[in-house]
Amino acid sequence: MNDFFNQNLSKLEIEINDLENEHNCLIERVEKTIHLIVDCLSEMKKYVIKKEFKTVDDEILFFKHQKPVIVAKLIYYNAIYKIEAKKPYGEKQVKKYLTAELKKLKKFFDRNIEFYKYYRSNHTYIDEKFFVRGNHDIKLWLDTYYFESDQNFSTSHDFKVAKIMANDLIQVYIERQLYQNNQEKSVDNLAINWTGSKASLTELIYALHSQGVLNNGNADIKLIVKMFERNFNIDLGDFYHTFMELKSRKINRTKFIDGLRDTLIKKMDEQEG
Questions:
Q1: Rounded to the nearest 10 degrees, what angle do helices 67-86 and 91-111 cross at?
Q2: SS3 content of the chain, % helix, strand, coil (to 5)
Q3: How far is CA 143 from CA 130, 147, 158, 239, in A?
Q4: pTM of the full predicted structure?
Q5: Cα-to-chain-centroid distance, residue 241
Q6: Per residue in 124-148, pLDDT tens?
Q7: Is 204 within 8 Å of 225 (Cβ atoms)?
């Protein structure tokens, strides 16, 4: 059983990693990942029912430490799918939404605090009731879900262990999302304003566009202008008209860029001196 489990887990993790490298769309990647995990569990179930366990200890090992690892992945990715699919727009709304999701995890912890203590403390004295099929005790923190599951492939508490594992991962995911949200807010608050002339910025933008250094030369001039306007908090207005005025200069049509070159060379010379 150990070899079969390790081989299937390794195969699953490689396939999940391949999906992460192939797909940029999170929702699509998670959907495909869920299908992979379901298929893996299906194969695991067939093997367990066909082969059976040699000892009670082997059965406990599988339902306490092995099956939950895979089921936890299913719970985790399913949770991520729901979180991302229902995520609202707007900084405040997202923060409120994610905070509410964290509270759901806390409620699960509070409801299952005794089993958390048992599992986290690596106790084993009730393992034969928790992790051997058909040995459930309704007095021991039993969920209704157990009675609806296939008891040929489930014990009273293997799903709860998987839920604990998954919730740890979900918490990390949500807290990372909240951190990134705060970081983006901090960056937004660090306003960098263009304090030179509009003509100078227009000259710079057209120079970058002409050099083909943005999107391999495929960036549209209008998109480049919008990017600079947004990032430097400036309205360039009729930038094409400004460019035409630059072209019509009789002397030093690239005044700003030439000045950049001279200033940079001077800076380099000063540092060398």
A1: 150
A2: 75, 0, 25
A3: 12, 8, 11, 66
A4: 0.67
A5: 44
A6: 999 999 999 988 887 777 777 777 7
A7: no
